[in-house]
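Table S2 (text version). Query chain:
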Amino acid sequence: MKVKTNQKDLILFTASFPYGNGETFLESELSILSVNFGKIIIICSDVTSANKRGIPSNVSVIRKKIEFNKQDKFRSIINVLSIDFIKELFNEWQSFGFFRKRRNLNYLMKSWYKSKLLSSYIVDVLKENNILVKNTCLYSYWWLDEAIGVAQFKKSHPEVIAFSRCHGYDVYTERSAGNYLPLKRFLIKHLDHVFAISDNAMEYISERFIENDLSKVSVSKLGVKVGQLKLNNVNSDTLVVVSCSAIYSNKRVDLILESILKTNCQLKWVHFGGMIKGFSDEYFESIMNKVRANNNQNIEIVLKGNVSNRNVLEYYANNSIDLFLNLSESEGIPVSIMEALSYSIPVFATNVGGVPEIVNESNGELLEVNISALQLAAKLEDYFTLSLEDKNKLRKAAFESYSNYYCATKNYLSFVEDVYKLKKSNE
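Corresponding structure-token output:
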């Protein structure tokens, strides 16, 4: 589990981890990072969540949210004199409606100013923790404002190693409100490397933001801890379907519910995940109202709400589950699918983003994005009627997909090796 090299210290920027219920997939990665780096400091922007998950002994946490108030907005205007800011405007001016969408310009100014503040804050963190710049790796888990701050720091401190992962909503501009995500070319230019979690994300970046040189972007897949090969001995008289996501519109939990309610076989649906901050209360409540109104005798619905990742995996280990559903409109490669596969659960998922890289006809089925509730209900009923032998073939292939491509130990050790190669190229 350890890469043989001189260890560096690591500063990792997260949205909430280890607080709250998000970024559960970082737990597996951190266990590998902790034995391959000296001192690790996590800087998370969540300053309100109460529950804190366990972390390794050499990891400490700073909760810091970079605020942006009216005075900052005035100060940010001064930053338009920056050559990098002007380059961003020049690159984007041909984008349809960019200047007509005032929020895009506001978004750019806000991101630029916050990144300047974060870059200055990194200086303070290094000084307070007696960490040398030349012995430091800066790692932004998301390819957003924190990554821009890391790139700003790298620009003025070239001896530091600076890199970011990128997933889905931080890559695909069409998933943002104004069809715009700021400063992607700036990030590619000034970061040492960008690690995309899927082939699809890397292809998107190369088409949108890179003209020639792809050397600073590569694919580094996520992974999950060891699950188990679980084959069934008998065909159950109830189809057990599981889904796992926050409940908001992109995840289309409403479509899952509508499909479930249209099935005629005996079915149990278990959903892990609840409402999250910043998303529609109305969407969540409409789903809850439909669940309460369910009086179908053949349908059992269990909404587990926001629970720990450990509880989700314990449920997978201790219960017989036939299918995992993911109907998102857009995705990177969901860790929730990796976890299902690791417990031999076949997956039905929409053909979006990086999902085709993990779901196929051997371990489940790729669904059309515009699939109707009635069509999905029919597919669920067809799956229910499969023979025990056919279901176990899918279950075995599901587990093999995980063990061959999404094993945490293999993938994260490879990631660490790639990071230390960046160190060598910087020396």
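Notes on Table S2: The chain has 14 helices and 13 strands. The two ends are 25 Å apart (CA to CA).
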